[in-house]
Amino acid sequence: MTIDGSDIKILTAVTLAGKAKLNFIYSFFSDDFAENVQFCIESLVRRKLLKWEKDCLLITDEGRKHYRIDGLFGHEKVPSNTKHLECVTGLTVCAMINLLISGKSCKSSIFPNLNPEGLKDIYALIKDLALTSGALYLSSERYLPDVEIINKLAGLTNADLALTLIRTHYSEEAASATRAFIKTLSSCPATENSMLGMLSFYLLLHNTTANAKEIASLLLNLNTVEKDNDICFVNPNANRTPKNSTPKLECDTDLSIRFDHDSALPPLLWLYADIVKTDVVCEWLLSKDGLFRALDAGVSLDRIKEELSYPYYNQLLELWLVNYNRIKVYDNCIVRCSDDLITVMENHKPLKEHILSNISFGVYYMKRSTAKTWQEILCSICNFDRLPLALDLTSKPASQMVINTGDRFDISEDTQTENTQVTNPRTLELTTDRLIQYFSLGSTVTATAMDYGAKHSIVNQAIKSKKTYLLIETLENKFVAKPFEAIKTEDKGMIVKLLILPVRKEVLLPLSSFYRVTSLEAFSSH
Amino acid sequence: MSDKPLIIQSDRSLLLDVHAPDANTCRNDIIPFSELVKAPEHLHTYMISPLSLWNALSAGIKGDRILEILEKWSRYDFPTSVRSFIIETCSRYGSICLVNNDGDTYALKCKDNTTFRVLLLARSLREMLLPSVNDNTFLIRKFNRGNVKLALIKLGYPVDDRIPLVKGDPVSINLKAELRDYQRLAVNSVYGNGGPGTGYGTVVMPCGSGKTVTGIALMERLQTRTLILCPNVIAVRQWIRELSEKSDIDISLVGEYSGEKKEIKPVTVATYQILTYRPEVDGSFPHMNLISREKWGLVIYDEVHLLPAPVFRFTAELQSIYRIGLTATLVREDGHEEDVFSLVGPKRYDVPWIDLEQKGWISQANCVEVRVPMAQSMILEYASSNARERFSLASNNPEKMKMVSYLLQKHKGEGILIIGQYLDQLKEISKTFDYPLITGSTSNTKRAELYNAFREGTLRVLVVSKVANFAIDLPDASVAIQVSGTFGSRQEEAQRLGRILRPKKTPCYFYTLVTKYSVEEEFSANRRKFLIEQGYRYTVYDN
Q1: For residue B43, what is the nearest residue in chain A, using CA coordinates?
Q2: Is residue A138 domain-resident?
Q3: Domain count, chain A
Q4: Is residue A488 domain-resident?
Q5: Partner-chain contact A250 B8, CB within 8 Å
Q6: Tens of pLDDT along B129-187?
Q7: For A480-526, how does the pLDDT look when each residue is reduced to its tens digit (9 = 90+)?
Q8: Which of B366, B413, B387, B368 is closest to B520 using CA atoms?
Q9: Please, which residues 68-97 of chain B have a Cβ atom closer than 8 Å to chain A?
Q10: How far is A466 from chain B (nearest CA, A)?
């Protein structure tokens, strides 16, 4: 895989942005705006989003691939007649961001036929959107229902204008870091405005779960080969040319790290420290989150210590490291096999290398990143077309279960169909798919049996919620769907009518079991 | 890179490289028109704000002089945006001036009709401005002087107050002790040239650095009737004791006005509480009214960061009197720092704590955070608690008792304060180790008795609640063990350290016990900020 300069810029920007959250984009539609201003802003954002969406979908269709969308968010302020459209649009934005931040899959899976020029167009779109949304957000901070602002926004075409707007209307207290970022980026001669745009946009999108490790690893590798000082942050004040000099870091007891503007950015600083100010002297702040970010990226503590060369920080960093090492979550797969397959699992070399550890007799902990490879091997050995998936529902009673915040709730169906492709736009049946519903509802509940009519009502109520989306996973693909309604069947079952969002295909999916999360009860059906 | 000590940032912050030659001279030059924000080890940050500039102008420093100073010390090019800001801000000063008028009014003169119209339309001034027969002029009642100035500053129109302060009736007082350099500088910076725009201000100096002496020095300079306001009775008595020991004032001229005594004398020391006391919720403040009728020549606000809101009104009416605010930590949780600056007076002097430590004026402090493991018995309870409960649980971690025991043993024979937030915890410590406890419910007599015993050395360990956070002078205390605190309060942390900073031959130790892997770690990090920004280093003992 090759990564070009544009990728580096985008990835750097995204990573620097840190904990961006996707939900924020819809904060534009807040109650604080006067109604007419809100309408103007919505229209403006929508136009940008629509344009973007069009391009994205076009790419998707060309690639004949679907992509995973994690971000789900509400859109209460969207007018009812455009709800559906906005929903698609919003998710498309999420998808785009996720694709861009994941870098690798973005190119290899989603944009297989996209040439560099096409990618640049996407960046340009992001920039355009970012500048607009950034400015909107910033103006919203001051709650200014000002016609002048709207006019400015409408004519917003370049970074300079956005910056002017930001500088005029940005609340000092709101987020100095954002401004500092913007300032830094705007001053970077090699970075171009797209990065500025991307960043300001991304800072608004606080809900996206960026795979920091992956991005950072990419960047770290890239930084070693990048010679043109592309990711260099310099003083916006001066027209001085950045040098490749070794930066002289001035660390202080208040955890601030400053370096002279004539110096290039220290190679790892952006990872473990947060920027506070870019000025004649740039100021960064060492933080625990920053250290965790760097450790996630695979940077060793020694390397950070070496770069800082400030003994006072060592003890603190080590304490943070101890904290960091207290717990780890591994996102891998567990495979259980019968006795006859154990020998194969443990001795067949192509399989063995994917086993991380042997948890117990016949149970293996395996790499998710190479799942496709080892699943194919196992399929071939077992003479399966696909591997059976354990949904781990056996431990849960059908009619009663305890659900905790953050649990995943499954709607599963067992109708057997061999083909996972769309055979009929209205009757897609997904045989091995799981329908996983994310609920943001909170408390621990106990499910009780209910009568059919009540179940139907609750299902309908749940799926019609604006916040309810379904993620449909197949072995290869994942789809996001918006459910519309549950339809009763003669055998007292239910069929859920869904819209698969990326392809805008409407499907009907039989519902076999459904665990509802409310403050009161859950139930099962079928 | 040149050796000049000052880096001027385009956001109007000034970074002073304390290791550069002439850094001290530069600091003295910039203090009159900038405010110290933080002072860690290497680069101290000062900030130029409209208020700091206007205060400098009111004290007679011209805008050109400010530019000249910055130009002189700047290591890099002087950002044009900062230059423009200073010129523009200074140009607004003088567009409104306050002068004497007949009767019980002052005249507020606007430079031009535009400014006059702006004031006319300002809602915040509507009830305070009276019509005048002269063009572009308003009249204001004398008692509204402070409020009008405050409102105008908030509007962005600083007032050139040309009314000289009034001297009160004379009182003879001379300081017996010799003033230290920084104390003299502080007094001079408040007194100024004696002309309009000077004679009032706030002085920020570390605990134990002699704020009381600085106050007495100003009394000596003015030789006038003085009202001293303090946060509590213990502090009142400390002031009286200091006046008696460090000045030649006839002690019969000094009175205590508190809940226990009601003496109004040429030098009266009162508590904020008594001033703000009123029998009915919506009633008037009888003591404040009584005291404000006296003709004071100077008001000293001790621990000015604690100035209660009702006293602001009282202070607003005292704009023709010399006044000084004294504090170690001008950090108000209610965000009223600006009101303090506007009514009591601008920050005229601020010195980094560590500077005084290096010069030996305050004790050398070792700040240590000790991380204590969470008691096994509370791990599950902690995990299932909400944020507030977690803080309380972590603060009350029984494992801290072992560490307290260890530290008491380690510092046996030294003056030790065990300071905490939770009464049950403090009672437990008091009971376990058999040391007396002072809380809010301890009578003033009992408190005084215990503090005296501590000062005299007959008592070496005291367990105290937050009542001892401020204004308690315990010169022999050299070890403080903070077992719990008020969430992330920076001010409390600094004030508690202040209890052990009185200069002494041996270094002092400030221990903070924090439950490991708990929310207390985060709060503790926040609490440390102020002191770290003052140049202190913390050592963390884990395990």
Answers
A1: A252
A2: yes
A3: 4
A4: yes
A5: no
A6: 888 777 888 999 888 888 888 888 878 788 888 888 888 889 999 998 889 999 999 99
A7: 667 777 787 776 667 777 776 656 667 776 654 443 333 222 222 22
A8: B387
A9: 76-77, 79
A10: 29
